[in-house]
Structures are given as structure tokens and as C-alpha cells.
Amino acid sequence: MFSLPDLNQSQQLPVDLEPEFEGTIQNISSPTGREAILTCSVKNLGRYKVGWLRASDQTVLALQGRVVTHNSRISVVHEDFRTWRLRIRQLRESDRGCYMCQINASPMKKQIGCIDVQVPPDIINEESSADIAVQEGEDATIVCKAVGHPTPRVTWKREDGEYMLLRKPQSRELIRVEAYNGTHLHLPKLERRQMGAYLCIASNDVPPAVSKRVSLSVHFAPSVRPTSQLLGAPLGSDVQLECTVEASPMPVSYWLKGGRVLPNSFAGAANGNYEQPGLSRPEMLLDGPKYGITEDRHGFRTNMRLVVRSFSPADVGTYHCVSTNSLGRADGTMRLYEIKIHPGGVQTTDDQLNIIGGLAEAARGRGNSATGSLHPTRTHHLLPMVLLLIVSLSLGTIRTVISASSDSSSHARTGNR
């Protein structure tokens, strides 16, 4: 006899549940050389299987717990029957992309997680500037190209820590800035003050940041400025003469003595031509017992010093500080004279008259210099000295005349008696 099935028994038959993902796959960011792990959690897997694929080209990397790719850096870890981890060691830039966790159900189920491989910055030397040299007044652009992921930021700074001097757009004014951001640093109409070493620093928050040094040389002909046009000293003392030189490239500097300017010959001496009719041949001075010669260099500036030891009458005369480089030549002239101290009064001598003449000449701006003339601001301070010296000598002369007149009157009165 046919009997109906037991409904209670049919309700107890096992029913296959569909597999489901638990949560989502968290994206990973990691620098090169590190490792990245993507986690895929599945429940109710049952008779189905889990596989890992590269999303871009559907390359199968692993099936269940077995790796099927030949990449030894990839492994799969299966935990508590529901967690599947894709592990990539020693990350490379080529590992950047998205990966798929797939369940072979019908229809197929999948989840995607992505790995962002970060690359520290690197400067491309072939596309970046090397050390450059330009003439003063010309334009220059220094370039720094860098790669990395994320895209690096490029910042320019001075190596010495000083402020950078950059020209305002459409302006001749230079402004001070601590840093400049950008791959191209434009420097129009360069000035000597902008010379120096610049650092290009590339960073993208992935250590380490990298830098490149670019040396910028601004070339110009020498200029020479003596600290004084006239110097006086008593016999037996040590006298120091100084000149400030600005030049680039580095100049050759030296001291000359002589080349005395005679009438109608001033212009030639101002141009540095000492060997012509009317001028005596100058003597080049060397460091030794008589002369002490030193130089202090600070960037494109040089301080020249000449010490004349045990000043004697033979040392009276004209001294020239001369500087020359590949772009030109310049010199500065100083006149060294003897200060005579006479007890009981001041006597007017030919030398003292020469001193007055020299001071007056310098005050009028006709003294020799690197540029052939003195700037008014450099000679203005000589005028009080000229007046004081003239008054002093005049008073001495008046005292001498009065004394002589008194003596003559006394003799006349004695004779009358």
C-alpha cells in the first residue's frame, strides 16, 4: 500500500545555504619593499571554493590554499575556515592595482581590494640642471625633475640657509623668500647677490626625501673700492691699506707702488696704463719682511690688505690695489703721506702743501680709483679734513709771521735807543 511521506521528516532534510561575504576588503597603502595583506572573509562556503585573481587581467593567483602563480612573493593564508588572506611580500611598483576575491558560486560572487604601492621620490639627473654660470644681467632657469608615487613636491632653497632673492613678476624689485615651490626656478636679469648654491628638495611623504645641489655662478668684471684715498702716518709706524674687490670668476689681485701721476697724464693712470710718457713704472709688491699682504674672501667679495712696516720717507707715494679676471680689470689708488709733528708749532713745508693739494684734489673727485673718479659720497668726508688742515697750517704760518715781526720791532727799538 502506497503511503504519503512524513512531512516532519522532509522538513529535517539538509538545505544548502548560499555563501556570502562578511564585510568588505580594506584597501592597503604601503611603500615599496614592505608587504601588503588583503583579507577576504566568507561564511557558508560549503562545497564552494575561494580564489584570488588580479583584477586588471583576470590572472589567477591562488585557489583555496594553493598558490598557482609562479611569483614566489605571493602566498595565501587560510584561517578559521572563513578567512582568506592574500599576502604579497617585498612590494614592487608593478604590484600596484586591484585584486579580486572570488567564490565559484552560480552566479559567481566577488569582492575587490586594491593595493597602492608608494614609491619614495627620486631626482632624474638627466633631466635636471647641472652647475651653471651666466653673465650678470642675463636670465637663467634651473630645473629639477623628480619621480615617485605620489607625485613628489619640488622645493628650492639656498644651501647656506639665507633667504632667496627672486624678482617680482613684471618688476625690477627683488624680494626675499624662504623657499620656492616648482620644478623650474626662473631667475631673470640675474644680480651678483643671487649667486650661490641652491638645493632642489623632492618629497612626497614617503621617506626619504632627496635633494640635489645646483651651483649658480654670476660672472662680472672686477670692481675695486679703496677704504680711503689718502692715508697719513708718522715715521716708524706700521700702516695698513685696504681695498674691497667684487669679482666673479675669482680674480687675481695684487698691489703696486708708484706710477706717480704727472701733469696731463691723469687719464692714463685712471685707465690702469702706468707705462706711458709722464708716468714712472710701478713696482709690484710682494709679501715679505717689508710688506704684509693678505686677502679675505667671502663669496664674490675679497678684502685686500697691505701692511707697510716701519713707515719711512721712501714709503711715501701712491699705492694701487689691482684686480683682474677673464672679464676685465680694475684698480683703486691710495696716496700715503708722512705726518710731521713739530714741537712748539706747525711749520708749513712743501710736503704739507702737497698734502693739502692732494686732499683738495680728492675732495673735488679727481683722485684715481677703479672707475676713474670718486663718488661724491666717498669724498664728502674729506672736506672737513681739508679745511682743518688748511686752518692749522695757516695758524702756524701766522704765528711764525707774528713772531718774526715781534723780533724785528724789538731790534728796531733797541737800535733807536
From TrEMBL:
Residue limits of the Ig-like domain? 19-113, 121-217, 222-337
Q: Which InterPro entries match?
A: Ig-like_dom, Ig-like_dom_sf, Ig-like_fold, Ig_I-set, Ig_sub, Ig_sub2, Neural/epithelial_adhesion
Domain of life where this protein originates: Eukaryota
Q: Which PROSITE patterns match?
A: IG_LIKE
Kindly report the protein's main subcellular placement as a broad class: membrane
Q: Which UniProt keywords apply?
A: Cell membrane, Disulfide bond, Glycoprotein, Immunoglobulin domain, Membrane, Repeat, Signal
Q: Which SMART domains match?
A: IG, IGc2
Q: Name one GO cellular component term.
A: neuron projection
Q: Where in the cell is it found?
A: Cell membrane
Q: Which residues form the signal peptide?
A: none
Transmembrane portions of the chain: none
Q: What name goes with this protein?
A: Ig-like domain-containing protein
Q: Which organism is it from?
A: Anopheles coluzzii (African malaria mosquito)
Q: What is the lineage of its organism?
A: Eukaryota, Metazoa, Ecdysozoa, Arthropoda, Hexapoda
